[in-house]
Write a structure and sequence with these properties.
Length: 411
């Protein structure tokens, strides 16, 4: 009996040791691409923001990202990570003028200084957690989003908060049954409205009431009163991309389909505010483009790419010269083979994208979308990935690393 009393604790200890997953590498060279990749986060479950939500301070010094325990910053100069907000948050966006991050917890909107951590309540309104989309305008006077008008049907209501009032962990980007849910939600025709929140006074104003499913609210990065939003739902059934002024005027549809099963979506502004870019397929899963709509003139430019280069989300560099894509998995829209990469795209003289692979995401599960974004200096792409198991935040250097032999991580 004494023999077993000694062996059992030792066995349990060794089992626990070997059961622990190895920590993801801090830095490595992708052997398939020759590009350097750096892990920016420490805590499992850390995640960079959705592809059109700004996470960078204006000077590019810091990146704000979410963790299981709140919000943290990564300092690109010092390489240090610092928690700035405790407790899980909902929608988040970083201002491009001040060094403040704006976010929703429960029914309350806050701002926090990314350096001092000074925090202020901007507004408290239970309606703000009924919709989606959360944006800050160019001069940081207004926040914006969408909300449900009246009672929210239980099936489509926000997840119940945890006992401490914070949102529960997200379900993921591409969860089972999402397509069926979107069909039901579109058919429900729930009354909604767009809203603005005055950052200084906390006043909430609503405008553009509709029974369309209003989502993906974004502000122009240069025009403080120009808002973009979408009609959410199965893309082939909706006219998705719209702009409007914050006083409710000048409603404009950005894209009109030209054929059956043509889809357009995952729209975003260029950094200079002159263009709206979006994924365009004519028709779905067959012919692929990144469309570039000039806001002032309405001129449309289309960049072509192949099926396996199609990406769940695209982005554009701060100087407007380069483009990125985060690839797609076997269950993504394109269902292309060998498309699990972070891509860099350079348009040629015929507006065809010439692709360069930056990161091999063969081990990445696309139920989590990478959502790649350019750093403000245009030298890195930041993305989130579960390629080593738990979600972490990574950055890949756009310039190829000059080494004699590129080595990958053995897992």
């Amino acid at each position: 009996m004494k023999y077993f009393s000694v062996i059992l604790p030792a066995f349990l200890f060794l089992t626990a040791v070997f059961a622990q997953k190895p920590e993801p590498p801090r830095e490595w060279i992708d052997k398939d691409t020759g590009h350097r990749i750096v892990r920016l986060s420490d805590e499992d479950g850390s995640s960079s923001f959705y592809f059109h939500q700004n996470g960078y301070t204006a000077d590019g010094e810091k990146l704000v990202f979410s963790t299981r325990t709140g919000l943290s910053t990564y300092n690109f100069k010092t390489k240090k990570i610092e928690q700035i907000v405790e407790g899980r948050t909902g929608s988040v966006v970083v201002g491009k003028k001040t060094r403040k991050v704006f976010y929703i917890k429960g029914d309350t909107v806050y701002e926090t200084d990314v350096d001092t951590k000074a925090t202020r309540v901007i507004a408290k309104d239970a309606r703000l957690r009924t919709g989606s989309g959360f944006a800050v305008n160019a001069d940081e006077t207004l926040l914006g989003g969408s909300m449900v008008v009246g009672e929210v049907p239980k099936e489509f209501g926000p997840p119940a908060p945890t006992p401490n009032g914070t949102p529960p962990p997200p379900r993921g980007d591409n969860y089972p049954g999402k397509g069926e849910m979107m069909e039901r939600r579109l058919a429900a025709k729930i009354p909604m409205a767009l809203y603005t929140v005055n950052i200084k006074s906390g006043e909430v104003k609503t405008f553009h009431e509709a029974t369309d499913w209003l989502n993906h609210v974004q502000f122009s990065p240069t025009d403080p009163t120009l808002m973009m939003f979408c009609h959410e739902g199965p893309w082939h059934k909706v006219d998705r991309i719209w702009t409007i002024r914050t006083d409710g005027s000048d409603l404009k549809k950005i894209h009109t389909r030209t054929m059956e099963m043509e889809i357009a979506g995952h729209e975003f502004f260029s950094a200079d505010g002159k263009y709206i870019l979006y994924d365009l397929q004519t028709p779905k899963s067959e012919v692929f483009w990144l469309a570039k709509y000039e806001i002032k003139t309405g001129k449309l430019t289309k960049f072509s790419l192949t099926k396996h280069e199609w990406s769940v989300h695209y982005n554009i560099s701060p100087d407007g010269k380069l483009y990125s894509g985060d690839g797609g998995g076997p269950n993504s829209v394109a269902k292309g083979d060998n498309g699990q990469w972070i891509y860099l795209f350079r348009p040629d003289k015929n507006n065809k994208f010439v692709a360069e692979r930056l990161v091999n995401l063969e081990k990445h599960d696309y139920t989590l979308e990478p959502n790649a974004t350019f750093t403000p200096d245009g030298k890195w792409l930041v993305f989130r990935s579960n390629m080593f198991g738990a979600t972490q935040v990574y950055a890949v250097e756009i310039a190829k690393t000059k080494v004699k032999k590129a080595v990958n991580v053995v897992r």
